[in-house]
Write a structure and sequence with these properties.
Layout (H helix, E strand, L loop, with lengths): L14 H4 L15 H14 L4 E4 L4 H9 L16 E5 L4 H9 L4 E4 L4 E4 L6 E4 L2
Parallel strand pairs: 3-5
Antiparallel strand pairs: 1-2, 2-4, 3-4
């Protein structure tokens, strides 16, 4: 899809929520893998609360800007750049969100108020953010 589109991806999510948050004029084409959307939809249904996508797809320029500004990001190409990751928040305790996400994702980064979930596998990966 194109940046700025607001088309449904699932019952609870749209393309707008997963679009890159950069201000780069050449950031047009956006993506999110269907498996990512489906797993996030399952979490949303299980917790019966809104699930906010705080960061979905990121273009390479936006990823570089985040690195340069000191954000903890992956070395090399990010799973966000591949449409295989999302950072999420929900109005439930973070431990409950981790429990729900762990049923679906092998790779989960845990912060105080949000999670990074991505499609990497098959081994379980857990890490924390400062």
């Amino acid at each position: 899809w194109k940046k700025g589109d607001d088309k449904p991806l699932s019952e609870h999510f749209s393309t707008k929520e997963f679009s890159c948050q950069c201000s780069n004029d050449d950031c047009i084409d956006q993506m999110a893998e269907e498996d990512l959307i489906n797993k996030l939809e399952e979490i949303r249904v299980e917790i019966a609360q809104p699930l906010k996508i705080s960061s979905g797809f990121r273009c390479a320029k936006h990823q570089q800007e985040l690195r340069a500004s000191g954000h903890e990001t992956a070395v090399g190409k990010s799973t966000h750049e591949l449409g295989q990751a999302a950072d999420i928040t929900a109005p439930i305790p973070i431990d409950d969100l981790v429990t729900s996400a762990a049923k679906r994702f092998q790779a989960i980064g845990i912060a105080k108020t949000w999670l990074h979930c991505d499609l990497r596998g098959p081994q379980i990966r857990r890490w924390t953010y400062k």
